[in-house]
Design brief:
Blueprint: E1 51-53, E2 63-70, E3 74-85, E4 91-100, E5 106-116, E6 121-127, E7 131-132, E8 137-138, E9 141-142, E10 145-153, E11 163-169, E12 174-177, E13 181-184, E14 187-188, E15 193-196, H1 209-221, E16 226-229, H2 236-245, E17 248-252, H3 263-280, E18 286-293, H4 308-331, E19 336-341, H5 345-351, E20 359-362, H6 375-380
């Protein structure tokens, strides 16, 4: 953190060093999309009061909104996070969470008084009063409430906020059922949509937000209701547009084609998954956290499914998948986990990957890269 000393200010130099050089400890190791270098998204310098919501939480907003119980009759909204006091003295403060309707009208409020010791970071959780007859979020009607969470000095609860976080809230519930399919708000819904990569001709990955939003609008215009954000978290404008336009989404980290069997690679994967979940937790459009794409497409040199080294490698891929799946369910038990395979069913079954996630994805290319289109329903059967 940069620290500023009084009214006179402090001179500081911020250096950002970036590289997209190959690193066996960092996914992706290979892929069918381009790895551009450089700083290609917005970057911000955040100035904060000594008392603020947690700024050191995997680049997340530090405040997390959930809907633990939802029905057509009522919904509960809860807010959790951590509050930090970086001053040299104790600070009595008031945390206020307010639920607002789409047109800005109050729909519920909760407060808590907290006595923060000097240098203390403390967790908090506030449950708002039940929301009766909520407007449900759905592709046909993506109604967004908003939660505004503030912290103020206890002696000036009506004064300027020391910190504030505002988050969208979509009141909805969903379920994946192996026999009956996907249900949103108690109704069956067929998911129709696309994958999306973030590059454009002549721009690479350095896109203005308007182009990201335009892609989501095109999905909506073609009658879609789902976007697989692949194979890496993308600009915040993508999920913001999904929230607003009613496009359900999955997001994933870039473990593509293969893994490196090393502690550093496994740790980087776990960190990426945690970052993704915490940074995008407050988006109601997200229903799936994913973590692998066609991870058995390219077995490392010398490894085969039928030799000892190959079988050991498959076991390590399974171990990583289990770690990431367990981490994801701990971080966010309300959403589904997903692993996406290419069309070699027997290989993924041999590796034990079919039994790990809650949802399996299949990238199937019959009649495209090879084979006949008739092979598509045959594979599904």
């Amino acid at each position: 953190f940069l620290r500023f000393a009084g009214a006179d200010g402090t001179r500081a130099e911020v250096l950002v060093k970036l590289t997209n050089r190959y690193n066996a400890a960092i996914p992706p190791l290979s892929a069918d999309f381009t790895f551009y270098g450089g700083l290609y998204r917005d970057a911000y310098l955040v100035a904060a009061e000594p008392v603020h919501f947690d700024l050191d939480n995997y680049a997340s907003p530090g405040v997390f909104v959930s809907t633990p119980a939802v029905s057509a009759a009522a919904a509960t909204v809860a807010v959790a996070g951590r509050l930090t006091n970086e001053s040299a003295r104790a600070q009595p403060v008031v945390i206020t969470t307010q639920l607002l309707t789409a047109d800005g009208q109050p729909a519920g409020q909760q407060q808590a008084k907290v006595q923060l010791r000097a240098g203390e970071t403390r967790e908090f959780r506030l449950a708002l009063p039940p929301l009766r007859q909520p407007h449900l979020w759905a592709p046909a009607s993506p109604y967004l409430y908003r939660v505004r969470t503030t912290v103020r000095p206890a002696g000036a609860p009506a004064g300027p906020a020391l910190d504030e976080v505002s988050s969208p809230v979509g009141v909805r519930w969903f379920q994946f059922d192996a026999a009956r399919g996907f249900f949103l708000n108690g109704q069956p819904l067929k998911l129709i949509g696309t994958n999306r990569h973030q590059d454009y001709p002549g721009l690479g990955n350095a896109l203005p937000a308007a182009l990201a939003v335009r892609d989501v609008q095109l999905i909506k215009e073609m009658g879609g209701n789902f976007l697989r954000v692949s194979h890496y978290p993308q600009d915040p404008a993508v999920l913001e547009a999904c929230d607003r336009l009613g496009i359900l989404a999955s997001v994933e980290i870039p473990i593509v084609n293969a893994i490196t069997d090393s502690p550093a690679f496994f740790e980087n994967c776990r960190r990426m998954q945690t970052e993704m979940i915490r940074q995008h937790f407050n988006h109601p459009s997200v229903i799936i956290w994913a973590y692998m794409n066609e991870v058995l497409l390219r077995l490392p040199a010398g490894l085969r499914r039928d030799n000892d080294a190959g079988r050991a490698y498959l076991g390590r891929v399974r171990a990583l998948a289990r770690q990431l799946d367990s981490l994801t369910r701990r971080e966010d038990p309300a959403r589904a986990t997903m692993l996406v395979c290419h069309g070699d069913f027997d290989l993924y079954r041999q590796a034990g990957l079919l039994a790990v996630p809650q949802v399996l994805g299949w990238n199937l290319y019959q009649g495209w890269y090879g084979g006949e289109l008739a092979g598509f329903p045959a594979f599904l059967d």
